[in-house]
Each structure stands twice: as structure tokens, then as C-alpha cells.
């Protein structure tokens, strides 16, 4: 099946529109290559991209003097000849670490050096990025090695074309229970390769219905075709696995990981799967979570389940990425002792060291579920002998559905910079997931992706900054949120300094703005059940999901100190003490860790209740300012982008006002304490 | 299409199982008929039913000595002969009012007298009811004339087989966008005819998609086939109409009721429709309501819309039933002035007298939407020159989804008995809708029905008491809720006095029990949005639906007095003053009419908050008692009924506890006032 062949989708940050050359054009006249296999597909794609970019951005038609290149004049030219006149040289250099690249300008020539084709591809995209940002390459000598071994996108796409928590249209991977491979597949691969992504899971972690059959002959051909396109851009292909496939596909009445029949079935199945999908990197598994089957059903541990699969895929170089999102999702709201926040740590810490080397535990950034503000999961770094991967979410499930603007890279920076105190000198989350802490290689970072088949890929054009930024940050953790945003704006919207500056003013604080008008001080939730968009203060308060704010007429918050659920004690010191004590607890997480009276005085000199009122009024005003700033850009950016975003801003303002008024009215009605400034509360 | 032909459905109260004869058997030996057309289908069905009932309940094989009767031995017998030996005589008697019947036992013969075949059919079912209830017919002389001209069931069935607010499986009228006619259609007609229903609307008032096409050639044949079956049981067939059909079917860009093109299209369409569906009684219309199109769109009145259609269907004897459920469903919750309760009256009272004679306004019993306790709509009786029909709902949308037991006939009795003070001596709702108040004929009562294709028709077997009871009450308003329930139990479950007594104890108070554990004192709502099952105290509090409780830390309720929204002033005196004054307002409606402090002392000597706590604890205890009573019936009623109901009781208890704990916790947290009895609140 081929769909979307009308190419009605944008090119995001790879538009290759005309740019100021700043002397860059002369380097793109002639491209040559040294030391690489000219027929390598990744190399070919890198060269194609360079040619396309030079043509589009600089108006230069690059000559390419070697076999395997589309524009090579194969007759009459030799590699030697071409090398002599080349201005841009792709050079194999074993001193550059794997997947890394060196961009070097020397004597009027520009070199992209790498020890492998993937590094070369990343170098090519880095070079094009510099050109797109109108930076001169003269005098450049820059070596970049990716910080994280695995840099992945997880898609929650279903085979019926829907996307779980998708806000950008439907799936471009699946339609009518078939796998879709077309030009959009290739564009997707180009985009994510250009930002350094090297692994993609195409199907929803909740594997149901037809998706269970992706590892069967029904789909092998198309899946392999898609995986091959990914391979040509250096991207390993992954699938989410149905842990109960032995039952649903195998006809065995068990999924017990120690049952020989189960093991035997998987052995045969994996031999078949890796044979039929050559570029397969392994599997992502959500087990024993939110109704998904898993080893707990059979009295086995998570390690039993993960290791069983890992041992079987090991001969094929496969890995098993095992999600740690295991908690009791049928909790009784009357139960104040059970704490969902504790669950990830409690369920996985005991088996630290039991997981085999090709198992990676994928850990959500916070202990709850992608709220606008959560503490960092204590499992990260808490596990001392286990491969760990950080999971964040750029699909804006709880952060505005790509209607509301919410630039998430600052949040991800906070997460990566968080000091876990797991090991002196190498204790940030960034250290842990890069392998620096433990010296391991099967580590990295994954994001639940925010794309769909909307023309602009991400629903709101501005949400593409997260799609772009996650990859950049995963590759180079030291980049600042502002640097990444700067690049994205220049590549996507405009290099006009006024546009760059204004869009930064809008987007850099947008996460705090969203936080201001939604749930306060780390308590989270308060969202409309099921959809997770819009305010419902009590929406999850009397539910089974373990997500409570416990507000009464005197105060709000969950006591997770040692006098409460003890969650704070899951951290290493001094974090445990800092969180445990209401005075030292960071105030933006105050209600996550403590039940606090409305009259409690914050360090700002405001009471808690006044803070709630003020921040909600402020949040709406900030949205109004964002909108005014956006309106100042009319005519300076593409009309279709301007207008689409403008419409979403209308919705965001409506949403922000609803949140403001509902939250304020809720707490005013409950506390009876009036706003000091006497603003409208209902 | 034919489905469900395996007859996997129950016979409800027409089971005709063996009964104690109490001397009744002798009357059923021979049936004859005098004065009626022997070939009339209704007559034939009445006779069939008598034969079937006599055989089943009394073991008597009735001889039927006249043409048209299935068991007649046509050869060798004459009508005269048969009449001589007949023990049961169906006799035309012009002194009995239309649709009424007289049952008379005289000189060892039993007579069913009526002036028309419908009356005869009702008489036959009445006789069978007496037999089923094991009452002797000896000495009987009873004349029953229906109180309400129109006695209707409204089905909200969609053509895709779903039922809006259906809790008993899917539709048995539609499947795969086709009309389904089979033996179940006939059984449905038998059931509703047996309780006196004389009009049925088969499709959802929200007419969309294929249902718009029911008035076209695509469906005429099947629709007419179904309508014909209904005709054979004296039931007029009605359809819900898409007011915008001129646009959707007619290709006219308007539905303006004064537009000649619109009028012209409808004239042609109605000529066609009444020609193709001979038994068509007219149409039910939901216009300008909850997103449905209507005359307001064109700046016309509801009367303009209704009259236009009514004038066109008049030559065919058709009527237009126009729903009054018109209100602003995109209200701002911050707006304390707009009051949804006022909307029906405000939208319709001004045009009183403008509606043509074959228009009936169908008015929901309360001003909101079928809550467990509401005041009576002030439109009922408020309209002094307009045909009115009462609409109630036996589909348990807000009253427990046919999971929770809620016998609704006591509520309907309250509604019918309500004194509107519209006219001295004839001012109850029953007077108004029967035509006694205004001397009009196009009046009556309709219920949104609770059936579906579940084997037992109503999901919960006990919910069939509402399906049965509504018809009985519509026919004879003076029947008590207990009499009706008594009949239903004896006909359906058992005539064992222990069963009869116990089931009455369970069901008679069940409406108050449901009220106890759900929303208190007339405030309504507090339900899970969309589904309307289960508790969510704030679920509709910050929404667009106009359904607010306005609870704060001091009190709860909506001020609808003359100091508030003024809704109370829509009633005639003394009702207006009674409701207006917090001291005279009936306490079970207190929060509907007043915003009341939690510390307000009720006439019971309890504070409002203590009443909330007590009633919710009591409600759960009552459910536990109901369950204990039910368990005592094990072995005394059919196992499949016992077990199905037992399972639903488990769910009801869970639901009741959730309501109790959520409501109590909500108000404890909000008020800070503890339960005097120190019971568990969270």
C-alpha cells in the first residue's frame, strides 16, 4: 500500500532554502571520498544530501567524482582525478570515535572525517546545519562524538492508523492494518538521522491485535522494506513486542519465561524474525503494566522475563529494552499508603545485577508519568549494575497536545543534569545513561515521539522544535536548550534575527508558562481523564490510577517523606534529606513531597494559596504575551505556518483560561481564602 | 436481514407458565366473537393470545368457533353454533369508550366487551393478566378506559445497531444500517400492546447518518413491514425526523420553515412517506437541541418549525411531536445568571397558543435531564393552550444503567400527582397530559425505553418492571406503584407470596435507595461525564452543560429563588412561593432551589452535612439489605434470573460504595466538618 504520495508534507529543518553563503559556497563545488566503500548506502545518502543542500541553500551544483554517487560522470573520470580537484572531501579516519565526525577546513578544502559511514552521515548533516544557520565554515575544526550509545524514538503507532497519544494526525507507518512504506518513510528517516537518532521503534508499546503479528510472515516483507530504508540512514529498526505472543501466536497456553515450551517457541521465532528483518536491532517490551501481560502472571520476576528474551536474541546482536513502567493501576484511592511513585523503584531495584548484558531497562524520567514537573526517577542511578535508558516524551500527552506551545528541551536538560549522587564525579543522569557511570555500552535515551501524518509532521509547527531538539540533545548533551532552539529556528522558520529572537522569547519559557497555568508545584495531574488535555482538578482524584492531590479545606499535597509514603528515601543522600524536609525541598516540587497548608509561607513571601492564584493569573498573561509576540511575526515567516500556529494559540489561550479559572475557583471554594488581589475567581 | 431467529429471548410477563386455575379454566374452553370483523388482524392476535395463554397457564385447549381464528375448525361449525357453546365471548359494545374494555363474568360466561379491536386486545391481555396473577375471574365486572390518549415508547436506537443510552445490548430494530424485522419484532409488539402502549418511535431522536434516510425509498419496504406488525397490535408507528432533511436529502440549502422550497419539498416527501408507510402516526422531532439543527438557525420560532411540518402531515392524520429539550449547551460555568433549568419554559411559554392542533410538545418531567430527583417542569400546565405530552425515561441513564436496581414507577406517580395549580380541580400533571385540563385529545405520555437485544430485553431482569410498569401506568394512572409491581412479579418471577413480598421490599424503595447513595437533595449530576454512571462530584461542575452544584467550603446548591435565577417564579402559586422560600421548600429539592450552608438545620434535626453523610452511609446499607433479601430467593425463582441479578447487585454495591465514599470525602474535605458518628471518610 502506498499513501501520501502527493508529497503533501513539509521538509521541516531540511528545507534547503536559499541562504546567505558567507563564503561557504566554494566548498561545495566538488565532492570526493577517500577510504569508504563507494557503494555504501549510508555514504550515498550523505552525498545525496550534501548535493541537495548545496544546490538548495547555496545554488551550487556539486560535482561528485566517485562511483555510487548519483551525479558522478563515471566515464572518463577517475577517483584520483576527482580527488585532486575536490573541495569537500569525505575521509575515513580511524581516529574519530564510532558514529562521531570531524569537520575540518584546511587550505581551502573542507573535510568530513569519520571512522564509519554513520559518523560521516552525521557529519554531513552537521555541515548542512552550519550552512543553514549561515555560519561560515572557514577555519572550522570540530569533532563531535555522540554522548549516548542509543538515541531512539519510540512511536506509539497502531496498525489501524491511530496513534496512542498522537496529536499530529494519524500514523504514517501503518494504515488499515498494513505497513506503509513510501517516500514519507524515507523523509522520516532523513529527518531523524539528521539529528543523530540511531534507533526507532515503530509500533505502540501496547501491542495488540494485528501488531502482535508484525513478527510473522504476514508482515515480514513490508517490515523488512521499511527497516532497509532505516538502515540506509544508520537507524536500527526495533519493534514493540507482545510478551504474550506465545499464547496469541504460538498456541501455547503460557508465557511463563521459564517454561521450556515458551523458550522453544521464542527461539524458533527469533531465528525467523532476525533472518527476515536484517536491520532489526531488537525489541521494546511493556510487560506487567497497565493491563499488559508479563512474567508476574507466572510468579516470575521482571528479570526472568527480560533475560529469557535477551538470551534468545543475543546471537543476532539483538537487545531487549524493558520498560520499568510497572505499577498497580487498580489502586484504591482510599488507600493513603500505597504510592504509585514508589512502584518503579520497588519493582526493579531488588533485581539490580540480575539483568543480562543485552537487556536495557527503560526508565521514565519521573516516577509518575510525564507530568509537567516531577522529580527524577530514583531508579536512574539507583540501579548500580544494570543497563539504563532514559525515557522522555515529546508527544505532548500531559503538556498541551501540541495545541499549547511547550518547548521541552529545558526540562530534558534539567533531567540530564540532575545529580543522583550514585557515584562521585559521574553521578548525573547524563552520566548514567551515557555509560560513563557504569562503563557500559547498552545505554542511552529514548523519546516517545510526537509525529503523525499531518503535513507539518507535529500538528503545531512549533512542536517540531521538540522533535528536532530531542535528537540533538541525545547526541550532544552539553548543548543548551537555547542553542538547539536557535538552530531549529534558523533552519526551519527564518534566519532573520528578529524572528530568531522573538521565537526564542516565546518558546524558551513556554514550559514554565504551561506549568504556571496548570497543576502547581509538582503535584501533577488535575487533567481531564482519558484525554489528558484540559483541566479537571478532581479528574483523577477518586480513581484507580494512583494519581492523587489529596486537597482538603486546609491544604494539598502528598506526604512522601519518611512520615508519609517514604518515597523520598528512595534517593541517595543528600537528595533524600533535601526532599524529605519541607524547608529544603525545592519549592517547585513541594506538593509532590509534602502535604502543605494553604497558609504555608513560601520563600517568595507568598502563601501557598496566593502562589496558586498568582501563578495561574500570570500563566494566562504570559500566554497573552506569547500571542502578541507571535502576531509581531506576521509576514516575517511563511503564512501557512503563521496562521496555523496563530489558530493554535487561540486554543491555548482558551485552555489556559479554563485552567486558571478552574484551578483558582476550585481552591478558593475549598479553602475559603480569598485572592489578596481580588481578581475574578468563580 | 433476519437476525436473532434462534428465539434466544425471554417472554417477560407473557411467559404463560402453568398457574393455579382458581376456577378460571372453565371460561377458556370455547371462544366466540360477536360484532367484530373476524378477519381483523388485531382481533386475530387477541384470540391467538387468549388461546396461547389458556393453554400455557391453565392447560386448556380453547376451541375457537369463528373464521379468522387459527384453531377454528372451519368445516361443519357455524358462528351461531360456536356462540351457543362459548364460555368466553368477545363482544362489540359501543357503550365502552374507544380503546377501553369491559371484563364481565355472568352466568358462567366471560365477556370481553369493547367498541373497537384495540380495546378488545387490551381486554384480552387484562384477562390473561388476571389469570397469570391467579386471580379468579368469577363475578368480575370491570371497565377500564385508558387515561391517556397517547401512550408511547421512544427508542433511541441507531441504525448501526447501537443504542444511545442503551444498557441492554444493542438494537433489535436496526443492524448494519438496515431495518430488522423478525419474530422479535412481533414479540416486542405483543409485549408493549399487552401493557397498553399505542405508539412507538423506533429511532433515536438524534437523527444522523442512515437514519435520515428512513423516509426514503432505501428503507420504505422494511419500515412498512415493521409498521404493519405494529398495526396488528394497535400500535401506531412513528419515526424521529431529521429537521435538516431538506438539506441532507433534498439538496436545498435551507431548512427555514418559511422557505417555500422547504415547504414544497416536505409536502412531496410526506405524500410519499404516508403512502409508503400506511400505519405511520407521525414524527418526533428534536430541533435546536444539543447540536441538532432547528428553526432557530433561521431566526424562526419553534412554533414556525413545528407548525410547518404539522400542516403538511395533517391531511394524512399525522401528528408532530416536538421536544422541548432546548437549552444552551455551551454555557460558561463561570456564568451564575444563566440557568439551564429555566430554558424549557423560557423557550416555549411565549408561543403558547401558537402551536397547531396536531402539534404536541413533549416535555421532560424535570427541567434538567432525568435526574434521580428534580422538580416537575413548570411547562407542564404552564402551557395553557398547547397540547402537551410528558416524557419520562426508563432507560436508566442517570439512575444506574440497569446495573443498579431502580424501580421508577414511584417517581412517575409523584410526577403525575404533582399539582401544578394551572386549573382548579384539574391541575395535576396527570390531568394536563390526559387532556382533562384543556379538553384536548393530542396529549399523552412517552418514555425513553430501556430495551435492547439482550436475552432478557432490559439487561437487568428487574429493570423489566419499569418496561412493564410504564405502560400500565400510562393506561391507568390511578394504579399504585405497588399494584403494578405486584402484577409484574406474579407474571414474571413467581406467584409465591414470599417471592412477591421480598421482591417488593427490594424494589419499592429502590429509587430512594439510589438517591441516598448518589447526589443529595435534588442537586443532581455529580456523575461521570459522558457515561453518566458512577460518581464524579465535580464531573460536570466546570463544564458547558449548565449542570452545577456550586459547592464551596461553606455550602452547596443553586439559588433559583427570586434572589437567584428566578426559576422558582416559573411556577404558579403557591408552588412558586413554596419553592422560593428555603423553609417551605421540600427538603428533597432543597439544593435544587437554594444554596444552603452545610450547617443548615434540616427538619430532621440534622445539619445538611450530617444528612449528606448519613444518607450515603444509609444508602449502602440499604443495598446490602437488598442483596441479602435477594439471596433469600435462591431456588425460588429461575436460576438464570437469580444469578444474573445477583451479579448486577455486586456491581451495584461497588457503585454505591464508590458514591458513598467519594461524596462523603468530597464534602468532608471541602467543609472540614467531621461526621458526628466518626465513620470512615477519606
Structural account:
The structure is a homodimer of 682-residue chains. The termini of chain A are far apart. In chain A, the strands form four sheets. Chain A has an eight-stranded parallel beta barrel with strand order 7-10-11-12-13-14-15-16. Helix content of chain A is 34%, strand content 12%. Chain A is an alpha/beta fold. Chain A has helices at 41-58, 79-85, 117-132, 183-194, 220-231, 245-248, 260-276, 302-313, 340-348, 409-417, 429-434, 464-475, 481-492, 497-507, 510-517, 575-580, 590-593, 608-631, 639-671, and strands at 30-34, 63-64, 88-92, 101-106, 109-114, 141-144, 150-157, 174-175, 178-179, 199-203, 236-241, 280-285, 319-323, 359-364, 388-393, 444-448, 555-556, 596-597. Residues 1-5 and 68-78 of chain A have low confidence and may be disordered. Chains A and B meet through helix 19 of A and helix 19 of B.
Radius of gyration of chain A: 26 Å
Shape of chain A: globular
Strand content of chain A: 5-15%
Our count of helices of chain A gives 19
| Helix share, percent of chain A | 25-40%
Low-confidence stretches of chain A: 1-5, 68-78
End-to-end CA span of chain A: 54 Å
Pair of chains with the largest interface and how many residues each contributes: A-B, 24 and 25 residues
Strand order of the largest sheet of chain A: 7-10-11-12-13-14-15-16
Taking the sheet with the most strands of chain A, its summary is: 8 strands, parallel, barrel
Structure class of chain A: alpha/beta
Number of strands of chain A: 18
Amino acid at each position: 500500500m502506498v499513501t501520501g504520495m502527493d508529497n503533501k508534507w513539509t521538509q521541516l529543518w531540511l528545507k534547503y532554502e536559499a541562504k546567505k553563503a558567507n563564503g561557504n559556497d566554494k566548498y561545495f563545488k566538488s565532492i570526493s571520498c577517500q577510504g569508504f566503500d563507494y557503494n555504501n548506502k549510508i555514504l550515498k545518502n550523505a552525498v545525496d544530501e550534501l548535493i541537495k543542500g548545496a544546490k538548495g541553500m547555496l545554488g551550487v551544483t556539486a560535482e561528485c567524482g566517485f562511483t555510487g554517487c548519483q551525479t558522478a560522470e563515471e566515464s572518463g573520470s577517475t577517483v584520483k582525478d576527482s580527488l585532486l580537484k575536490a573541495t569537500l572531501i569525505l575521509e575515513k579516519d580511524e581516529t574519530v570515535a564510532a558514529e562521531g565526525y570531524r569537520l575540518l577546513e584546511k587550505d581551502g578544502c573542507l573535510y568530513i572525517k569519520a571512522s564509519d559511514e554513520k559518523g560521516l552521515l552525521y557529519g554531513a548533516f552537521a555541515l548542512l546545519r552550519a550552512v543553514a544557520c549561515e555560519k561560515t565554515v572557514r577555519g572550522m575544526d570540530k569533532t563531535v562524538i555522540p554522548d549516548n550509545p542509543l538515541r531512539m524514538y519510540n512511536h506509539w503507532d497502531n496498525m489501524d492508523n491511530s496513534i496512542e497519544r498522537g496529536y499530529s494526525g494519524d500514523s504514517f507507518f501503518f494504515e488499515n492494518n498494513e505497513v506503509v512504506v513510501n517516500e514519507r518513510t524515507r523523509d522520516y528517516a532523513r529527518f531523524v538521522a539528521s539529528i543523530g537518532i540511531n534507533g526507532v521503534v515503530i509500533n505502540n508499546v501496547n501491542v495488540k491485535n494485528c501488531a502482535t503479528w508484525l513478527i510473522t510472515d504476514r508482515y515480514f516483507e513490508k517490515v523488512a522494506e521499511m527497516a532497509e530504508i532505516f538502515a540506509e540512514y544508520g537507524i536500527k529498526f526495533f519493534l514493540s513486542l507482545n510478551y504474550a505472543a506465545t499464547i496469541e501466536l504460538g498456541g501455547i497456553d503460557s508465557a511463563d519465561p521459564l517454561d521450556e515450551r515458551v523458550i522453544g517457541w521464542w527461539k524458533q521465532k527469533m531465528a525467523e524474525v532476525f533472518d527476515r528483518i536484517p536491520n532489526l536491532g531488537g525489541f521494546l517490551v511493556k510487560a506487567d503494566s497497565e493491563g499488559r501481560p508479563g512474567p508476574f502472571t507466572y510468579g516470575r520476576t521482571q528479570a526472568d522475563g527480560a533475560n529469557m528474551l535477551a538470551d534468545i536474541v543475543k546471537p543476532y546482536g539483538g537487545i531487549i529494552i524493558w520498560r520499568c513502567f510497572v505499577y498497580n493501576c487498580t489502586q484504591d484511592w482510599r488507600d493513603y499508603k500505597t504510592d504509585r511513585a514508589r512502584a518503579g523503584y520497588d519493582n526493579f531495584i531488588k533485581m539490580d545485577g540480575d539483568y543480562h548484558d543485552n537487556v536495557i531497562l527503560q526508565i521514565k524520567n519521573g516516577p509518575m508519568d510525564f507530568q509537567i514537573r516531577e522529580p527524577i526517577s530514583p531508579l536512574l542511578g539507583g540501579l548500580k549494575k544494570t543497563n539504563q535508558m532514559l525515557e522522555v516524551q515529546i508527544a505532548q500527552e500531559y503538556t498541551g497536545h501540541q495545541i499549547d506551545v511547550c518547548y521541552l528541551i529545558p526540562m530534558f536538560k534539567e533531567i540530564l543534569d540532575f545529580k543522583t549522587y550514585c557515584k562521585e564525579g559521574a553521578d548525573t543522569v547524563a552520566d548514567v545513561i551515557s555509560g560513563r557511570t557504569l562503563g557500559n555500552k547498552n545505554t542511552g535515551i529514548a523519546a516517545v515521539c510526537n509525529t503523525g501524518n499531518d503535513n507539518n509532521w507535529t500538528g503545531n509547527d512549533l512542536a517540531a522544535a521538540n522533535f528536532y531538539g530531542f535528537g540533538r540533545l541525545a547526541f550532544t548533551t552539553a548543548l543548551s536548550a537555547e542553542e538547539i532552539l536557535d538552530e531549529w529556528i534558523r533552519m526551519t522558520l527564518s534566519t532573520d534575527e528578529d524572528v530568531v529572537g522573538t521565537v526564542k522569547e516565546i518558546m524558551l519559557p513556554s514550559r514554565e508558562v504551561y506549568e504556571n497555568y496548570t497543576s502547581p508545584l509538582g503535584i501533577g495531574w488535575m487533567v481531564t481523564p482519558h484525554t489528558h488535555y484540559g483541566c479537571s482538578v478532581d479528574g483523577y482524584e477518586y480513581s484507580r490510577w494512583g494519581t492523587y492531590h489529596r486537597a482538603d479545606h486546609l491544604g494539598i499535597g502528598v506526604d512522601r517523606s519518611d512520615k508519609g509514603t517514604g518515597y523520598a528515601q528512595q534517593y541517595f543522600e543528600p537528595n533524600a534529606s533535601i526532599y524529605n524536609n519541607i524547608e529544603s525541598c525545592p519549592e517547585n516540587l513541594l506538593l509532590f513531597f509534602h502535604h502543605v497548608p494553604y497558609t504555608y509561607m513560601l520563600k517568595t513571601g507568598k502563601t501557598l494559596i496566593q502562589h496558586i492564584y498568582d501563578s495561574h493569573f500570570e500563566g494566562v498573561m504570559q500566554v497573552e504575551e506569547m500571542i502578541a509576540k507571535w502576531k509581531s511575526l506576521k509576514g516575517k515567516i511563511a503564512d501557512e505556518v503563521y496562521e496555523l500556529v496563530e489558530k493554535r494559540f487561540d486554543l491555548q489561550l482558551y485552555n489556559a483560561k479554563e485552567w486558571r479559572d478552574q484551578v483558582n475557583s476550585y481552591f478558593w471554594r475549598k479553602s475559603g481564602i480569598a485572592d489578596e488581589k481580588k481578581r475574578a475567581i468563580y
